[in-house]
Design brief:
Length: about 200
């Protein structure tokens, strides 16, 4: 969870107890200024971290917010959707196109990381979903290998490797990580080995 100011924490607490406040925040994701959308998205992500059930009825609005131009609104909404995955996987499946665009955004590392986390969490839930998102996760691993966010992406990929993956996805993921498991160094090597081992269990 990203750091919150005392004022933001207060807003999150208010939104958790007041449906009207939460409704207004979700509405602000689709209108108003860029800054207003970003701030609303940050509070919504805070609510998702505290009590994701409250956002299940707003899943469609969160998916829609992935169309906004600014990176922060999108990464906060991807973070919120990641929290909703165990509660409403169906609505989260509709976020895959928006997550794909975010994963390959060349300008925002936090946005790419949020997209990878979301796709890994969604893909870990069923074999069918693992097949649906695997090509994106695979491409993301190749694209951002060595980037600043890559180590954090691998934490998400490690969680993915422990999910309900289709056998062919497990095999492909193990193959993808084998090079780093053999030739990598430090934390990269350690995480790659862990992922390969998870896939081969």
């Amino acid at each position: 969870m990203k750091s919150q100011t005392p004022e933001e924490k207060k807003q999150v607490d208010e939104a958790v107890v007041s449906p009207a406040v939460l409704d207004a925040l979700v509405a602000a994701l689709s209108d108003g200024s860029r800054r207003g959308r970003q701030q609303a998205a940050k509070i919504v992500a805070g609510v998702a971290a505290e009590n994701p059930e409250l956002l299940v009825p707003h899943g469609t609005a969160l998916v829609d917010a992935l169309e906004r131009p600014e990176a922060q609104t999108r990464w906060e909404c991807l973070d919120a959707l990641s929290q909703i995955v165990p509660l409403d996987g169906r609505v989260c499946e509709k976020a895959v196109p928006g997550a794909e665009t975010a994963l390959f955004d060349e300008d925002s590392g936090p946005l790419r990381l949020a997209a990878m986390r979301f796709l890994c969490r969604l893909g870990a839930t069923t074999e069918k979903r693992s097949e649906k998102v695997w090509s994106l996760i695979d491409e993301g691993i190749q694209c951002w290998h060595g980037d600043l966010e890559f180590q954090d992406m691998l934490i998400a990929v490690n969680d993915f490797s422990q999910g309900k993956l289709a056998p062919e996805v497990k095999a492909a993921l193990a193959e993808r990580m084998r090079f780093d498991a053999t030739n990598g160094r430090g934390m990269l090597k350690k995480r790659a080995i862990q992922i390969v081992e998870n896939c081969e269990k």
